[in-house]
Amino acid sequence: MKPSPISARPEDAFAKDVRAGLTAQPKSLPPKYFYDTLGSQLFEAICALPEYYLTRSETEILQRHAPEIVAHFPDPLSLVELGSGSAVKTRYLLDALLAKQKSLLYQPIDISESILRQSARQLSLDYPQLLVRGQVGDYTKGLGQIERQHNEALLVLFLGSNIGNYNPDEARQLLTALRQSLRPGDALLLGADLKKSAEVLTAAYDDALGVTAAFNLNLLNRINREFEADFDLKHFAHRAHYNADDGRVEMHLVSQKAQRVFLRRLNLSINFDAGETIHTENSWKFDLAQLQMLATETGFAVRQTWFDQAAFFSCNLWQVASS
Ligand SMILES: C[S@@+](CC[C@H](N)C(=O)[O-])C[C@H]1O[C@@H](n2cnc3c(N)ncnc32)[C@H](O)[C@@H]1O
């Protein structure tokens, strides 16, 4: 695994974001910090929950349509994946591509070193024809050291509703920057979650077992560990609700009483009122018109969209548009 060229000292960025987020009104923290070692494991557990339809729906699409997706490209093709996580669903695309070409360069980028190392090791064992070049880093800072072996086209995977964590302006910026680092013949496969009933959406982020609550609260554990802070997790509660006006599920950590928290390494005291929240994640939901507009605004042309049978989720193949 290469040391990351794009986030050489991620702890500095974390410290800066924690200070800014906890001193802002209202308080917030970026969701990318959920993914320490335990956070990545909790996310894998979330993917197995009955309420978390997103992973099952996207798996259904890739399982059924991976050969059709890769048939859009001449051989050879290389894969880049943003926020690859365990890359379990990626295997359907690897299988489809390796049925067409002898070898394959796969370049995952993930902020979580533990899950990236684990998935890279497992993929290399399971696919001898695969060359895995992982980068630990923040993909919002750029693609880093993406390579082309034989001047081949790139297919960039951005799966798992990752795009939903960005507000519309941020999503446009991120996709525009991505488009600028690609060239004609390259494409993006975007997994985007679709609007649906508030009941189904809320349950997906507030499961009966409390795994998503643990995932959310673990962010405070991480801050306690990395900044010698004294968040008492018993005095914060997980809350998820669908904000239908904005079309997003919001996750918050709600202070159960008036309290003060001290982050020793940042020399920072934070006061919480009873009921005050830290907004920890948005998960924006899309309709097809919004996805079409997002593609057009960021320099892509929609090539094809696939759905699961329930039409809960979409995988969107966007080609770099000719400028
Ligand atoms: C919602 S999970 C999705 C994982 C996998 N793609 C899937 O579909 O199951 C988000 C993944 O993206 C990574 N991630 C989140 N924000 C990131 C960022 N800004 N830069 C790099 N990786 C990020 C997390 O570590 C995690 O592995």
Summarize the structure.
This protein is an alpha/beta fold. It has helices at residues 10-23, 37-47, 53-70, 90-98, 113-126, 168-180, 198-204, 211-227, 288-297, and strands at 27-28, 77-82, 104-110, 130-132, 135-136, 153-158, 187-193, 236-243, 248-255, 259-263, 268-272, 277-284, 300-307, 313-320.
Overall description:
By secondary structure, the chain is an alpha/beta fold. It has 2 domains: 53-194 and 286-320, Rossmann fold, CATH 3.40.50; 201-284, no CATH class. The protein contains 9 helices and 14 strands. Residues 2-9 have low confidence and may be disordered. The chain binds S-adenosylmethionine.
**CATH superfamily membership of the largest domain, which one?**
Vaccinia Virus protein VP39
Give the CATH level 1 class of the largest domain: Alpha Beta
**CATH topology descriptor of the largest domain:** Rossmann fold
Instruction: Give the overall silhouette.
Output: globular
Our estimate of the beta-strand percent is 25-35%
Number of helices: 9
Biggest sheet architecture: 8 strands, mixed
User: What multimeric state do the chains show?
Assistant: single chain
